[in-house]
Amino acid sequence: MPERVQLRRSRGWRKPADTIVVAHPSRWGSPFTVAEYGPVAVQWFRRFLAERRHDPGLAARWPYPSDEQIRTELAGHNLACWCPLPIRTRDEVAAIAAGHRGSRTHRPMPRRRPAARRRRRCTLMAVYVDNACVPGRPPRCGEHTTKYRAGCACCRGWANWYNRRRRRRVRSGTWGEMVDAARLRTHIRHLMDGGMRILDIAADAELCYGFLTRLVYDRATRRATPAVAEAILGVRLRPTDRPLVDAAGTRRRIQALGRIGWARAEVATRLGVHPCAPGKWVANRYVTRDTAAKVAALYTHLSAIPGPSRLAARRAQRAGWPPPIAWDDDIDDPHARPNLGAPDTDLVDEVAVALALHGQPVALSTAERVAVAAGVLRRGDGPAALARLLGCSGHRANQLLAQATTQAGEPQRDGAVA
User: Fold this and answer.
1) Do residue 187 and residue 287 come from a single domain?
2) 228: containing domain
3) What is the pTM assigned to this prediction?
4) Alpha-carbon gap, residue 345 to 367, rounded angstroms
5) Alpha-carbon distance 321 to 36, whole Å?
6) Is 174 helix (H, G, I), strand (E, B) or coil?
7) What tens digit of pLDDT does each residue of 84-93 get?
8) Do 251 and 304 have their domain in common?
9) Which residue from 12, 214, 223, 399 could staple onto 218, CB 3.0 to 4.6 Å apart?
10) Do 88 and 22 fall within a single domain?
């Protein structure tokens, strides 16, 4: 039965009898070399053999022995090439080689390092009828959204072909002048202001979504090829099924909810989205119209209800996020500013003060705590009752009562807590 034979240059090795060499530079070597087509060279060779039966032009472009010659001259013989053993083959098909068109001479490494010997990258593969292809550049990977993914032979083949083509054109001076990415970024921003998503722009320009995302948000991308620039600048504004709107209103609503104790995780749970989604909406410049509407509806429902997270309220207060009471109907206006009161006074949320007086745990500012202390004075209670409401020490309760008395112009009540 015919077998696979691996060619060697070791001392004393001889080619077995009844063996035909199918590697380069023999006539059986593949016209699609690894040096030019990368890891997908074997796939192109296989498809070429299947497609040339229906397209005589392919056989004229890449001369290669016919199927009848392959079966007549190779059937029943051992096939030898430089590919390492073992290699998987398919039944009921003839195995032929697709190899590296390198020089005939090969100088091995010193004997003390036989494992570092250089090997020719030719591959023996099974040839069978496959999907038709049009020879040219390697096919783009339809599984991965980025240009290159480690471990994917199709991605590696495309990246290798592109890099070799670019180096050849740079050396010959035909690569062309690179285009400043700032101009492309401005055009994409204009399309996004009109309601188009990056996904829609990528589909119209027939470019990678990941590349456009990096071009818009990553300032490290400074230049682009003329072909990419022409594709991006050729996209025109059009209506989409999921238009974008300015994220200012969505960002302010999420921050205001956090100011009164509604953490982003709780907001995401009530909206039915991923816990990281509210953070992305706050950081992004645009959101979809559906997202803005859902956040606005939730804000209307929760803006008058204190949230359960005191940690979220303290973080929002340290970050300087205004509460819902600071925003009027102009919360969606990107140029609007929150109403934080006079520079020397603090804004008091009356709803939060009322809830605190009824014994509910609420995150309060210093001015709101003083307002609670004033309410305790009006009810005739003392520092002990204020300490229970605010969960603070008796000394802090006395300080708040003293400050409330000073603002009201009334004498302080007795009964201080030690």
Assistant:
1) no
2) 179-233
3) 0.42
4) 8
5) 58
6) coil
7) 776 543 333 3
8) yes
9) 214
10) yes
